[in-house]
Write a structure and sequence with these properties.
223 residues, alpha+beta, Glutaredoxin, binds glutathione
Length: 223
């Protein structure tokens, strides 16, 4: 039996973060598909989002709480630093992803790739309005990843698992591909994340679910 269950749809970027944290920690999991906004889903998550973690009789929603719980409740390599400044750095990066990166890069990927792949007209106004924020976000990310191997230092933390889905999928858009080609620190980080054994736990579940999207042409990792 798996250590934990994730109640979610498999295409959720936040699910991938949670699975990546579990894979880094060595915690086994199973995916329990939800019926989006069904009474059962809303009972698990009053705001109708995903994923929700189940560990025995314990349930948690909000991916920051899920990641923290997996890190603290199980044996395995620590995925957060012990010192106050290191912890603050991790919280800052998780907040950056939640508040700036996810709303921009995730929506951008959907407008640029998913909608056209489904024959739906993208929101051109959003695509235009996202250009400057995307550049700013990549500038900040590149600044961190030229200084160290991972977002907050030379050891992977849960913060890296939060960023991973976004750079992977944004990198498949023309704008993401162009920005990554000018961001050697971020591009090397993507390669580094993909080379980790943890990547193969989550890739089979979520990345493959987006196999219908066009791969980024210049990126060796996007094929
Ligand atoms: N603050 C939530 C956000 C989770 C979230 O937005 N998940 C997306 C999937 S990646 C979702 O539930 N989307 C469905 C919706 O917004 O209705 C968390 O950290 O877990």
């Amino acid at each position: 039996m798996a250590d934990v269950r994730f109640h979610s749809l498999e295409e959720s970027a936040y699910l991938w973060t949670a699975m990546n944290v579990a894979d880094e920690k060595g915690v086994s999991y199973e995916l329990v598909p939800i019926v989006y906004h069904s009474p059962e889903h809303l009972k698990l998550h009053p705001f109708g989002k995903m994923p929700v973690l189940q560990h025995g009789t314990l349930f948690f929603y909000e991916t920051a709480a899920i990641a923290h719980y997996i890190d603290k409740a199980f044996d395995g390599p620590p995925l957060q630093p012990a010192d106050a400044a290191g912890q603050a750095q991790v919280i800052r990066w998780v907040s950056i992803v939640n508040n700036y990166v996810f709303p921009t890069m995730n929506r951008f990927m959907k407008e640029r790739l998913v909608r056209p792949a489904m024959g739906i007209e993208p929101d051109h106004a959003f695509i235009e309005s996202a250009q400057e924020p995307l550049k700013r976000q990549m500038h900040v990310i590149e600044g961190a990843l030229t200084k160290s191997c991972f977002l907050t230092g030379d050891t992977l933390t849960i913060a890296d698992s939060f960023l991973l889905p976004h750079l992977l999928f944004f990198g498949r858009t023309p704008e993401g591909e162009a920005l990554l080609s000018k961001s050697p620190g971020a591009a090397a980080w993507v390669e580094r994340m993909r080379a980790r054994p943890s990547f193969h736990g989550s890739i089979s579940r979520t990345y493959d679910a987006f196999g219908f999207l066009p791969p980024a042409k210049g990126m060796s990792w996007a094929a």
